[in-house]
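R.M. (postdoc): so does anyone remember the format we settled on? I'll just put the structure tokens first.
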């Protein structure tokens, strides 16, 4: 599977002149059954099943055209390639080329998914030695007073650019290239934008396929990259509000004008909002960066040179797309920076809480120490009273024993004997108590 991935989407072979209708749709919520139901409307495709879509690539060859289906991570591309008469465009003002599609009525409108890109790419054969005439005829078809245009396929051999002087344009020298591309990057009334490629006779089908692939991928990836711009703009007010809230929390933390619990509740709410914004948009920002990188790669693959009086595609993208990508990147960095600052403020608040907790613990320990000291004093007092009480009970027992002996006829004076034994009993009780304390302390 990994080995064959490099061949998963082979380049088309296009015989010029040709018309390519390319539509990219977001396929969120679109199931394989919905795609198959739509593709089965094409002539001769009634036996199509979802299993045919497992490789994420399908090319259907109809009688008058071919239909290519490509499934990508976020979007699906439909490309219809059909022959185009040589003079279908040149000299014709804004012709409706969709009427030439040999497809069921409304088939394009019924493509499942939300359209993100729609391009009509016309590829014609014409010599490149009369640029003024070509430009005039191309602008007639595009219906524009100005276009973005490039000479594609410029080469430099041995460090020396190979050039020629086209007729009708004195002093104009350009490196040899294989084709022209002209476009407006504007939507027309039918919902499509138009591109025109002019290549000389003898252009191979594989080269024409590569040219079409680069241009169509360039436009699809450009629009997919721009999906991050509305997200970045919508996050602007949220980020400004969060930054102001964080500054207020930091000021209150510094001035100690609010309780730790109040600051903690506010900071937790702010951190949750920032992390939610990151979780919701991290994929969109990463995808924008990836698509922007692909746009740059496709522009580099064009190997374009300027046509006098026009702006190159790469230059146009640099001036129009780069600011949008910079906005998205800046918003992503701003969001990440805000998350880091919230984390640092949380650390400061946590440090303040820890210090306060340590002070409280120290005070509590001091109170416990004073309480234990009082308890020891009370315990000593109680122990003295306990020794006296125990001695009293022991002497009472001895007194009762002496009285019993006297009653039995033994010549003894119980009171005198008990009085004489008082010091001994006190000493024995005190000594026994000390031994018990010594054993208890030795056990700890």
């Amino acid at each position: 599977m990994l080995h064959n991935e490099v061949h998963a989407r082979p380049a088309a072979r296009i015989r010029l002149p040709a018309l390519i209708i390319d539509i990219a749709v977001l396929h969120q919520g679109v199931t394989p059954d919905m795609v198959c139901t739509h593709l089965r409307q094409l002539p001769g495709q009634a036996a199509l099943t979802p299993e045919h879509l497992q490789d994420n690539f399908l090319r259907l060859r109809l009688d008058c055209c071919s239909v290519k289906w490509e499934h990508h991570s976020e979007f699906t591309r439909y490309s219809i390639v059909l022959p185009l008469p040589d003079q279908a465009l040149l000299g014709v003002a804004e012709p409706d080329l969709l009427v030439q599609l040999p497809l069921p009525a409304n088939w394009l409108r019924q493509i499942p998914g939300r359209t993100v890109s729609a391009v009509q790419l016309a590829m014609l054969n014409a010599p490149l030695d009369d640029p003024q005439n070509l430009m005039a005829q191309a602008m007639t078809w595009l219906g524009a007073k100005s276009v973005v245009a490039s000479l594609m396929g410029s080469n430099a051999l041995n460090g020396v650019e190979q050039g020629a002087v086209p007729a009708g344009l004195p002093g104009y020298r350009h490196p040899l290239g294989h084709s022209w591309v002209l476009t407006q990057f504007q939507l027309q009334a039918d919902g499509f934008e138009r591109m025109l490629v002019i290549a000389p006779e003898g252009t191979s089908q594989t080269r024409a396929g590569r040219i079409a692939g680069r241009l169509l991928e360039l436009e699809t990836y450009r629009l997919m990259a721009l999906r991050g711009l509305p997200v970045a703009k919508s996050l602007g007010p949220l980020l400004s509000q969060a930054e102001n809230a964080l500054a207020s929390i930091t000021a209150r933390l510094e001035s100690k004008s609010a309780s730790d619990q109040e600051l903690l509740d506010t900071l937790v709410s702010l951190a949750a909002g920032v992390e939610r914004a990151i979780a919701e948009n991290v994929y969109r920002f990463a995808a924008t960066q990836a698509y922007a990188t692909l746009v740059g790669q496709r522009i580099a693959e064009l190997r374009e040179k300027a046509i006098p009086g026009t702006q190159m595609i790469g230059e146009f993208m640099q001036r129009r797309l780069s600011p949008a990508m910079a906005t998205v990147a800046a918003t992503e960095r701003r969001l990440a920076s805000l998350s880091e600052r919230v984390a640092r403020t949380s650390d400061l608040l946590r440090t303040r809480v820890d210090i306060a907790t340590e002070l409280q613990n120290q005070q509590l320990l001091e109170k416990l120490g004073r309480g234990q000291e009082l308890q020891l004093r009370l315990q000593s007092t109680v122990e003295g009273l306990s020794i006296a009480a125990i001695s009293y009970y022991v002497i009472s027992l001895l007194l009762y024993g002496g009285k019993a002996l006297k009653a039995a006829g033994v010549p003894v004076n119980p009171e005198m004997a008990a009085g004489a034994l008082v010091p001994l009993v006190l000493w024995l009780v005190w000594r026994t108590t000390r031994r018990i304390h010594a054993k208890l302390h030795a056990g700890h």
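R.M.: ...and that's the designed sequence above, right after the tokens. Also worth knowing: The two ends are 71 Å apart (CA to CA). DSSP finds seven helices and twelve strands in the chain.
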